[in-house]
Amino acid sequence: MPLVKQEEQADDQSSEAHAVSGVVLDSAPVRVKTELAVAEPTKTASSQVTFSHLQQAITQESATVLGHHKSTGPGILRSISQVLDSIKPGIDIDRWSQSVKDLIQQAKTPVTTIGVVGGTGQGKSSVINALADETKLVPTNCVRACTAVITELSWNPSEDPDHRYVAEVEFITADEWQYELKHLFQDLMGATGEVSDEGSNRDADVGVAWAKIKAVYPQLTKVSLANTNVESLANDPAVKSLLGTTKSEHSPTIDDFYQAIRVYIDSKEKLVVSDTADGEDEGKHRHMELWPLIKVVRIRTKCDALSTGAIIVDLPSVEDSNAARSAVAGKYVERCNAIWIVTSITRAVDDKTAQKLLGQSFKQQLRFDGNSSNITFICSKTDNILRAELKKWESTQEAELENDKKRTGSLSAYVTELDKRLRQWESLAGRQSTGVAVYAPKETTRKRKATVQGARTRKRRRTANDEISEDVSAYVSANNYWDNLEKDIPKFGDKQGLTGENIRCMLEFLWSQKATASEEKEQLDEKIEARLTSRCIAARSEYARKSIRSDYALGLKELDQDSSQGENPAACDPEHEVRDYNQVARSLPVFCVSSRAYQEKCGRLDTEDQFEGFETPETTEIPQLIAHAKKSTEARCISNDKAFLNDLLQVLNSLFIWSSKSDFEIPLTDEEKKDEMASVKFALVGLEKELKAAVNELVRKCKNILSKRIFDLFESSVTNAAKCAPSIAQEWPRVQKGGNGLPCVSYKAACRREGVYSGKMGPRDFNEEPSTPLKKGLGAAWERTFSKKIPQVLKEFTKVSAVQFQKLHDHMKGRLEAKVTFTSLNMLQGQVKARAREVDKMINSFGDEITAVQREASRDFTPAIKQRMTRTYTTCAQDKGSGVFFRIQNAMMQEIREQGKGIFSAATDPVKKKLIAMCDKLQSDLEAQIATMLDRMNSDYANLILGPDMTDGSRAGREAILQILKAVNGQFEPSQLDGLEL
């Protein structure tokens, strides 16, 4: 509802009103340099700036500082709320009370959803455990896919020690399980009504279906399966008791917690259930697996990586064929703020990882989601390096290792010399024992060679291996041994015959020297081996990092060129680069991590294994990945904290005006109050009109951008998609043995599932794949529209709004400054700034909503294609008998060739409708929020002009609130940050 009805505007035709209108309703375009251009007051405000430190806090850019200030707010608000609750209810009191309570709820930490994807066996679960600083929060197994369900990890706010670890397990609904069972049945049953012979072959798609049914119903045999039906299985008491429910688990220790939840998320853990309908123990039990029935597991725990609002979602690999779980995974990806892709380091080195992991459809969707710059690659298992790989990478480190090899070589030469002398003296001992006179051999002085340390004079950049290097350098050089040998060796005259005691003394000395040198050399060899391993691991990681970055940038460049070609072939210039791809490569986060080495360095592994090449936890790169997870939340936290503090400032300003009016008021006559309120009302009507005009202009521009940059491309994109579709459809069936297409049974299974199927040949989507050429011509324009053009017009709206707020305040200040105190006017000036920031926050919020809606819209192409293809899918699924594969291929191809343009044209309709509806909702929501802001402005001016209702109860309450407010500023002083780690 508008603040003031338009009829009331027509009633007041005074010259004063027209003068006000001239100030507020100026529609000339405004050019502003700053994001929120708000003029300063024309007169110096009172020296009492009540919330100056809070205002300063809002300008901070440190997430830590802002988070500290934000944590102060709820306590202040709760104190105010208690006072308000003690005052007799009234319009003002109720409004303030609700505003304060609403603001307390806004003090929560915003979440940043990070989706973690990766193939089976790539180390995804181990990485997540390491991030959580646990060894078994989610199960791991080196030989099989262990995590079979979607697992969400988030911060646990509970301080209850018994709830240190909390899990919620959400099961799929009965309808979803019946849908799954129906298709599993159809996959298994042959034309004779019996289970297909391939049911025992785990490498066949039929075998996969049979394994899934047996997981939940282990008592079933192929014969009993043929004699039952979907309804009977779905109504199984043990299964039915779980469907549609959410189970909760909590434990004080990780060991207890792991035992409690592993049955839900480990693909091989079994639950013992009763086979009786009433659950009574009659000795009949079975061991069933739960993972096919679970939609998602939500785990809450305390760990550094999650402490700033990150939610880490472990998504199953793309081979997961559970329809309900696949839909949930798709929704998670849709709302992800970042995507982490995990692959083993060996695959990253050997394959074009960025290209293979990011298929065309995935990369395309990243662009539509605006997530192209929110990708992180994680190369796991860097500790897994074979001796052959060490030899491969050792050649790249020869220069660095040369001095170390010289050192150990010199020690070897020294030990060899000692062996030579030992043989000499042992020979002398033998001769002396027979009575022969023997004399000490003449020793030649060894020429001193430059030490390895002395030769290493060239300065070099300090590296991560320096700690190991310093350990190696700490060992004495061979020359030191020679010096000690020549200094400490027993001395005998050349002409003096040797006694048995002389010889024993020399032998003991030489053996002692050899033992010391040999032990030293052995330890040195171990250190050098560790250094070599560390450097080879680092070299391999750096190679993988560079390879992934360049490969990702190249893939994005190819995608951009494809989009340009699809958008306007005549104007496409392959030499023109739409972005700096070198910068794309440099900025792509790539972490090469070892989860096991990190756990070992942190003392969590119950093993004596030492992971060579990792001297500290930091060398595993897990701490850096944890910091990256926290950093990914920083922008949202800063924005959210600033918005909360700004809202807090507005509430405190308004409460200050309301509670302190009697202290600062210069009394106005009733007639003056009436005139001033009429002026306020008319000015607010003018402001409302200006802001509505700005909203209309904003929405008009948004619709115009959508029309010109997206909708106008639909026709050419539809034509291109219809042209490409037949060749895409030809790839679906397997036309020859060993081909990549689907065999008949899998092709029909895909048709039964409305074109979507995931089997041993990998996932196929007959709806998504043909939409790729359709999206190809839209991708670049879509990205520009939602990452640049629409944010630009939203930003323009904030500037216009800020200027209009300031115009109104300047006008009212000119009328009131001779009648009220500067402190009160200064508070209102603070409100103007705060409201300008509130508009900015509001627009940012709408920007987030627009991002969410456009992500949904970009996914509407595929369901629309599925809807148009449903009849053909049904026909193909029901066909059987001789020649069925030939017939269903022809039916599919005929539909695509003849109806292609209509299919893809229909696919664009829901997208267009959703985006237009988005603009309409933006308009209605903006107008509603503006009306609320104007109502609060009216309240502030009314409190200033009219004064409060000073009943005894109200007076005492206002005084109590005023005392709270007077103490607020000190709580935001910079000194409060002392001791805070910044």
Give the helix/strand layout.
Layout: H1 6-11, H2 15-24, H3 52-58, H4 63-86, H5 91-105, E1 112-117, H6 124-131, E2 150-155, E3 165-171, H7 174-188, H8 205-216, H9 222-226, H10 230-234, H11 237-240, E4 246-251, H12 254-265, E5 271-274, E6 285-288, E7 294-301, E8 310-314, H13 323-335, E9 338-344, H14 345-350, H15 353-357, H16 360-369, E10 375-380, H17 387-394, H18 398-433, H19 452-455, H20 466-473, H21 478-488, H22 500-567, H23 581-587, E11 590-592, H24 595-601, H25 622-632, H26 634-664, H27 670-709, H28 714-729, H29 744-752, E12 756-759, E13 762-765, H30 768-776, H31 779-816, H32 822-858, H33 861-878, H34 884-946, H35 952-966
Parallel strand pairs: 1-8, 1-9, 2-7, 9-10, 10-11
Antiparallel strand pairs: 2-8, 3-4, 3-7, 5-6, 12-13
Helix pairs in contact: 2-27, 3-26, 4-5, 4-26, 4-35, 5-26, 6-24, 7-8, 16-31, 17-22, 18-21, 18-22, 20-22, 22-23, 26-32, 26-34, 26-35, 27-31, 27-34, 28-30, 28-34, 29-33, 31-32, 32-34, 33-34
Organism: Anthostomella pinea
Domain DUF7605: 739-899
Region (Disordered): 1-21
Structure, explained:
The protein has 35 helices and 13 strands. It is of the alpha/beta class and 982 residues long. Among the domains are: 49-110 and 636-665 and 947-982; 390-588; 698-935, no CATH class. The strands form 3 sheets. Strands 4-3-7-2-8-1-9-10-11 form a 9-stranded mixed beta sheet, with helices on both faces. Helix 7 crosses helix 8. The longest helix has 68 residues, at 500-567. The chain is globular, with a radius of gyration of 38 Å.
